[in-house]
Specification:
Blueprint (H helix, E strand, L loop, with lengths): L2 E16 L5 E16 L3 E5 L6 H8 L7 E6 L2 E2 L5 H10 E4 L13 H11 L8 H11 L16 H13 L5 E5 L7 H18 L2 E5 L3 H7 L2 E6 L2 E7 H6 L4 H8 L16 E3 L20 E3 L25 H6 L32
Parallel strand pairs: 3-8, 3-9, 6-7, 7-8
Antiparallel strand pairs: 1-2, 1-4, 4-5, 9-10, 11-12
Helix pairs in contact: 3-4, 3-5, 4-5, 5-6
Bound molecules: adenosine-5'-triphosphate and magnesium ion (MG).
């Protein structure tokens, strides 16, 4: 596999001023050292709770915000070192599909103006004329070119997202960064848009970074998966590896909550984590736990991204963290203590071997 996009130790911090006189400055560490590889013609799913930094990473990758530090390479070229012409080409090569097709399309512009706008912005006259090019793009995404004069409100949510995709494709990009592209759509329509993205990928050789909190959707579309927590990637790998053999406790917790439509629903309460035996049914949501692990209910909100925990960012909520000193010396045989749930891990996640402070009892 050949990488089309590589991200190396990417950081995006937002400075915040606090205090009465707003003199002290700290930072929201929205993206805090992310490394990823997207292979050509493949889909990399990026999952994680709300606030984990997915959209921030997406915005940096499409170039609407500069990174604080780190490298982004497209086709092996460091984007910060491109010539002016190279930067212009880059803005064509990497396009974004947004979450909400209701707010991301200008209601005062016709579909033909929306889809054709990238040509105007980039000063491009497509062969055969803009009108024909827009017609072709609409056909490509399964819309009737005769409807090009209509306005966004005359389309359904799924059709609007097709308009957004047509617009993103106008400049023949290599990479689409899709930020929750189906989250705002009815479940019945989500599948159609996912199928369209898959067809377009096969037809045009596109590569996708696909951001979502719905692990079911990601499992369907992604070849590779990265799991983000508090600005960092805690686990990444091929789709089957991650879904069938998750190593990181946070991934296991997310996956154990998959039967619930919105995984974040289960990820709230008060401090720590509890693990319910397999086969139990949640009294509130009615959802049953799947797999051998049972439902892992993460309690409490993630720590603040202004002051994230050192080492593994998940350790403050991790039921395995207290076993870490032993885990570090003997990862393969480490067992959770008797009073901790045994999750049947084949091995303690290697990611925990780094730098995690022992927790106070
Ligand atoms: P969601 O699933 O809700 O879309 P996300 O994973 O996309 O969440 P981000 O929107 O990237 O998360 O936000 C990551 C963190 O960065 C959050 O704590 C957010 O409040 C903060 N953040 C995002 N944009 C800014 C900004 N412009 N200024 C300051 N903080 C920001
Ligand atoms: Mg987001």
């Amino acid at each position: 596999a050949e990488p089309v996009l590589e991200v190396r130790d990417l950081v995006k911090h937002y400075p915040v001023r606090n205090g009465l006189l707003r003199r002290s400055v700290s930072a929201v560490k929205a993206v805090d050292g992310v490394s990823l590889t997207l292979d050509r013609g493949r889909t990399l799913g990026l999952v994680g709770e709300s606030g984990s930094g997915k959209s921030t990473l997406a915005r940096v990758l499409v170039g609407v915000e500069p990174p604080t530090s780190g490298q982004v390479l497209v086709d092996g070229e460091d984007v910060s070192r491109l010539s002016r012409a190279g930067r212009k080409q880059l803005r064509r090569d990497v396009q974004m599909v947004f979450q909400d097709p209701y707010t991301s399309l200008n209601p005062r512009m016709s579909v033909s103006e929306i889809v054709g706008e990238p040509f105007a912005i980039h000063g491009i006259s497509p062969a055969g004329g803009r009108r024909a090019a827009v017609g072709e793009l609409l056909e490509l995404v399964g819309l009737d070119p005769d409807h090009a004069a209509r306005y966004p409100h005359q389309f359904s949510g799924g059709q609007r997202q097709r308009v957004g995709i047509a617009r993103a494709l106008a400049l023949r990009p290599k990479i689409l960064v899709c930020d929750e592209p189906v989250s705002a759509l009815d479940v019945s329509v989500q599948g159609q848009v996912i199928n369209l993205l898959e067809d377009l990928q096969a037809e045009l050789g596109l590569s996708y970074l696909f951001v979502a909190h719905d692990l079911g959707v990601v499992r369907h579309i992604a070849h590779d998966v990265a799991v983000m927590y508090l600005g960092r990637i805690v686990e990444q790998g091929a789709e089957a590896e991650v879904y069938d053999g998750a190593q990181h406790p946070y991934t296991q917790a997310l996956l154990s909550a998959v039967p619930v439509p919105d995984p974040s629903v289960r990820l709230v309460a008060t401090g720590g984590a509890r693990v319910e035996p397999a086969g139990t049914t949640d009294p509130v949501t009615g959802a049953g736990a799947t797999g051998s692990v049972g439902a892992i209910v993460l309690e409490g909100d993630p720590p603040s991204p202004v002051d994230p925990p050192s080492g593994c960012p998940f350790h403050t909520r991790c039921w395995l963290a207290p076993t870490l000193p032993e885990a570090r010396t003997e990862p393969a045989s480490a067992q959770p203590p008797a009073d901790r749930p045994d999750l049947g891990l084949r091995q303690v996640p290697t990611v925990c071997e780094t730098d995690v402070p022992a927790l106070a009892p």
